[in-house]
Predict the 3D structure of the following.
Amino acid sequence: MQNPFSPGPSVGAAIGFEIIIHQADDETFPDKVSKLMIQARNNGSAHPIEYNVSGRLKRLLDGLEKTCAFDRRYGLHKNKTELQKAPPSPSSPALSSPPTTRNKAPLIVGGLLVYGFATYAVYHYVTLSRPGPAVAQDTDTSACYDDRASTFDADVAFAEKTSGMIRWRAKLVGKAYGHVLETSVGTGRNAGFYDLSKCASLTFVDKSAPMVQIARDKFYALHPTYRAAAFYTQSARSPLPSSTTTASSPEGGCYDTIVQTMGLCSTPEPAALLAHLGTLAKPDTGRILLLEHGRSHYEWVNWLLDRSASAHAVRHGCWWNRDIRRIVADSGLVVERVRRRHLGTTWWLELKPRKSDEAAAPALGQKAME
């Protein structure tokens, strides 16, 4: 194959010569290249070999023509100095910028997170698939919380953070106002979420003495100057101290807000407890705020919960397969708002006492409680 820059009817030699001759020109270089391209095309039409212009040279000529057209449009290459400063063609492999190195940190972190969640899901699936010992639903399992008190916060911290349960606690407890009663206070996981500017008093109750002590220490560490708080180790169904014995109790024994988070799962008679809480709330304005867990929207989830409920209750003191919808209906309280998350197993409920002249509400179906 003949060298495209060899003497004779070679456009390549002519263009190469023109580039050398005119590259230092101020404004005429782009126009001369364009004229040369026109001549090359016109002459090439009469020769089948197209003046021995190879494929690589053709691409070079086309790119050069486009560059010249760009130069004419934007007024570049007005002198030799600007020509030397012009950016190199991106098509030139010798002058192209080095490839950038991608940051692999997000990919590694994402892979670790996927692996962690997958492991966590498989662990729970295996745990839920194991049938546990036969234990009656009305068995009082609250005694196990005495043994778990020191490690309880650490045991549930990861699950509550990843599931968004902490945000729900904060939003629910933030609605409390006036004289407030929190039952099943546990280790005081809600202590930091109260707006004390809206709370005239706070009364905390739980059956586990070690947990009540942890809750008290945690509360005063967060709110050292608050003096209208009281802590009692007793059942929420037992009579609470009256206003004659403590300044933190409301007059008449009725509270503006009653808070309970994860309490219906650990009492042997959840409907009776809920009905009793209704008698402790102010008849007209009192509200009961609950955050509970129980049966799901889906039967396959309920099958898993039922299969492992006994073992979970023995190990953690919690019946996580209870029918919250039925418990609320049996309590006789009025439902104002219900929200559900986590396949329907987590329940946010806002209730109020039923007035004596208020007719009983019809049985709530599954759709009405979602």
